[in-house]
């Protein structure tokens, strides 16, 4: 039986992804243009929800833009785009004021003589207290508030029954919307004047992550299929402190725990960070993650300890109620016991190359949030600059979209695929194999031999998945796997190209830094063909 003809519908602005970036953009555009937001239920479990620490912005009268810029540049280890850094930092206060106007319940500072009405904490890499937060569940508080406003807006249509599996293009190779699957597996062509990707990063290509349902680079590869350039894929940030519990779901232990005085110890009782860096536990994440990895190898332990018991019961419960309650529910009282922690894939510093307004090299295609490479993070993202980036670039992209009137050219009809069904267990086994390859060879420490092995094994895996796709009926899990495997191959390519150690990319076979700090640039066409 031939595949059914896709249902086709027309949309003004199509936003794919409903985290903080996607919701913020939708609200800013909807008073001028109609917005269709593809927001599957899994978006509630995405990276935005699990952002505990907060949002970095210059809010205190004791802080200034130059200091935030300089801290970000230092953390980025020579690869930040200075123009993007200053643009982001200077737009931060206005973005926070907008969230406050919507009613986001940020934690107030009730202390006598407070210089700012809301409590500001400090995290790794920051030289000042500039992290505004909602207790220790900032992402959830922001997400819930934005969702309420989006759901109430008459010009925003939410489609929670669709998942995008590819983008549509016209004869000029302009993006013309997305190809989606509904809950019953039926194809839908969502034709759009402007398309915005807000699909998240690529932490899901690794075995251990800080999110239960991490993105695996699907949005990056959908853009790459239309010719978009991808940059700095080799810089995958591993959060130093994910709760170590092999039997339970991932749970991130916020950077703010160390910001408020939490200390790291090896399992044999050694506090190791002061000997490695003058900033100790407040060093940038790449330094802390590598230090933890080294201590785990030295002791043969699968974790280290994060101890905050010295802060006292009252302070712990006040600053970290979510972390305290979660750990207590898993049998761990953090007011009396240290927390077992392990580094886990957390944030993709690379992604789709964009301008300051979210524009990509593909006409009528835009990207915001973790899926995008703006130049803000460079070789390492500084804590709590991620939600800041989501807000700032969603607002700048929206300002551009509000005044655009793209031609509504029909897309070229995409092939609908075959009818064969690929066994779900087979897809799961391929995904497990991909994650194992990436975690063994392309994680916190990479070596030339491991990268060579990863390139070979991923190419073979890609060949197998591609063969299965030739006759397969369209399916979300299979499409996601194909995107993830090819994104993994490009990540390995970028890591092999970088003949130095910088930021999040550490290769003992080339431990020094190159004289010039240059971003990596790749397109899908750069992938070697199968043997």
Automatic annotation (TrEMBL):
<comment type="similarity">
    <text>Belongs to the FAD-dependent oxidoreductase 2 family. NadB subfamily.</text>
</comment>
<keyword id="KW-0274">FAD</keyword>
<dbReference type="GO" id="GO:0008734">
    <property type="term" value="F:L-aspartate oxidase activity"/>
</dbReference>
<feature type="domain" description="Fumarate reductase/succinate dehydrogenase flavoprotein-like C-terminal">
    <location>
        <begin position="431"/>
        <end position="511"/>
    </location>
</feature>
<dbReference type="InterPro" id="IPR005288">
    <property type="entry name" value="NadB"/>
</dbReference>
<keyword id="KW-0472">Membrane</keyword>
<dbReference type="GO" id="GO:0005737">
    <property type="term" value="C:cytoplasm"/>
</dbReference>
<dbReference type="InterPro" id="IPR003953">
    <property type="entry name" value="FAD-dep_OxRdtase_2_FAD-bd"/>
</dbReference>
<feature type="transmembrane region" description="Helical">
    <location>
        <begin position="13"/>
        <end position="30"/>
    </location>
</feature>
<dbReference type="InterPro" id="IPR037099">
    <property type="entry name" value="Fum_R/Succ_DH_flav-like_C_sf"/>
</dbReference>
<keyword id="KW-1133">Transmembrane helix</keyword>
<dbReference type="InterPro" id="IPR036188">
    <property type="entry name" value="FAD/NAD-bd_sf"/>
</dbReference>
<keyword id="KW-0560">Oxidoreductase</keyword>
<dbReference type="Pfam" id="PF02910">
    <property type="entry name" value="Succ_DH_flav_C"/>
</dbReference>
<dbReference type="Pfam" id="PF00890">
    <property type="entry name" value="FAD_binding_2"/>
</dbReference>
<keyword id="KW-0285">Flavoprotein</keyword>
<keyword id="KW-0662">Pyridine nucleotide biosynthesis</keyword>
<keyword id="KW-0812">Transmembrane</keyword>
<dbReference type="GO" id="GO:0034628">
    <property type="term" value="P:'de novo' NAD+ biosynthetic process from L-aspartate"/>
</dbReference>
<feature type="domain" description="FAD-dependent oxidoreductase 2 FAD-binding">
    <location>
        <begin position="12"/>
        <end position="387"/>
    </location>
</feature>
<dbReference type="InterPro" id="IPR015939">
    <property type="entry name" value="Fum_Rdtase/Succ_DH_flav-like_C"/>
</dbReference>
<comment type="pathway">
    <text>Cofactor biosynthesis; NAD(+) biosynthesis; iminoaspartate from L-aspartate (oxidase route): step 1/1.</text>
</comment>
<protein>
    <recommendedName>
        <fullName>L-aspartate oxidase</fullName>
        <ecNumber>1.4.3.16</ecNumber>
    </recommendedName>
</protein>
<dbReference type="InterPro" id="IPR027477">
    <property type="entry name" value="Succ_DH/fumarate_Rdtase_cat_sf"/>
</dbReference>
<comment type="function">
    <text>Catalyzes the oxidation of L-aspartate to iminoaspartate.</text>
</comment>
């Amino acid at each position: 039986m031939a595949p059914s003809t896709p249902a086709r519908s027309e949309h003004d602005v199509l936003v794919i992804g409903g985290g903080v970036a996607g919701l913020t953009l939708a609200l800013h555009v909807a008073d001028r243009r109609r917005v269709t937001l593809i927001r599957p239920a899994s978006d509630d479990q995405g990276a935005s929800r699990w952002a505990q620490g907060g949002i970095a912005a210059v809010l205190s009268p004791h802080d200034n833009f130059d200091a935030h810029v300089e801290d970000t540049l230092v953390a980025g280890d020579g690869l930040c785009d200075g123009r993007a850094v200053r643009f982001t930092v200077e737009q931060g206060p206005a973005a926070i004021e907008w969230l406050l106007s919507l009613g986001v319940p940020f934690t107030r500072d009730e202390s006598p003589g407070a210089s700012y009405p809301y409590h500001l904490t400090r995290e790794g890499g920051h030289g000042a207290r500039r992290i505004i937060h909602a207790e220790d569940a900032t992402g959830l508080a922001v997400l819930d508030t934005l969702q309420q406003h989006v759901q109430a807006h008459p010009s925003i249509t939410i489609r929670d029954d669709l998942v995008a599996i590819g983008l549509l293009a016209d004869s000029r190779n302009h993006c013309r919307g997305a190809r989606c699957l509904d809950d019953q597996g039926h194809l839908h062509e969502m034709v759009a004047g402007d398309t915005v990707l807000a699909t998240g990063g690529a932490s899901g290509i690794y075995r251990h992550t800080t999110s239960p349902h991490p993105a695996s680079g699907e949005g990056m590869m959908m853009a790459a299929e239309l010719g978009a350039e991808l940059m700095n894929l080799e810089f995958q940030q591993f959060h130093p402190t994910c709760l170590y519990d092999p039997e339970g779901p991932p749970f991130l232990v916020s950077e703010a725990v160390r910001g408020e005085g939490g200390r790291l110890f090896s399992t044999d009782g050694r506090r190791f960070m002061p000997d490695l860096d003058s900033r100790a536990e407040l060093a940038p994440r790449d330094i802390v993650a590598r230090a933890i990895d080294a201590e785990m190898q030295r002791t043969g332990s699968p974790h280290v300890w994060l101890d905050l018991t010295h802060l006292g019961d009252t302070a712990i419960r006040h600053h970290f109620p979510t972390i305290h309650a979660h750990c207590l529910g898993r049998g761990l009282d953090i007011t009396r016991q240290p927390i077992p922690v392990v580094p886990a894939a957390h944030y993709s510093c690379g992604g789709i190359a964009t301008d300051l307004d979210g524009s990509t090299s593909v006409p009528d295609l835009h990207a915001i949030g973790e899926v995008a490479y703006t130049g803000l993070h460079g070789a390492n993202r500084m804590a709590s600059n991620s939600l800041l980036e989501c807000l700032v670039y969603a607002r700048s992209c929206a300002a551009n979209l509000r005044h655009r009137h793209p031609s509504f050219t029909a897309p070229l009809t995409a092939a609908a695929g075959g009818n064969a069904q690929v066994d779900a267990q087979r897809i799961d086994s391929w995904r497990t194999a991909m994650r194992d390859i990436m975690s063994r060879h392309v994680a916190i420490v990479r070596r030339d031999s491991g990268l060579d092995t990863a390139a070979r094994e991923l190419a073979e895996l890609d060949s197998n998945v591609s063969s299965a796709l030739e006759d397969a009926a369209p399916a979300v899990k299979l499409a996601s796997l194909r995107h993830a495997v090819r994104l993994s191959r490009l990540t390995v390519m970028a890591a092999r190209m970088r003949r130095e150690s910088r930021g999040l990319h550490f290769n003992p076979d080339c431990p020094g830094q190159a004289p010039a700090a240059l971003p990596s640039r790749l397109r899908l066409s750069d992938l070697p063909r199968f043997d």
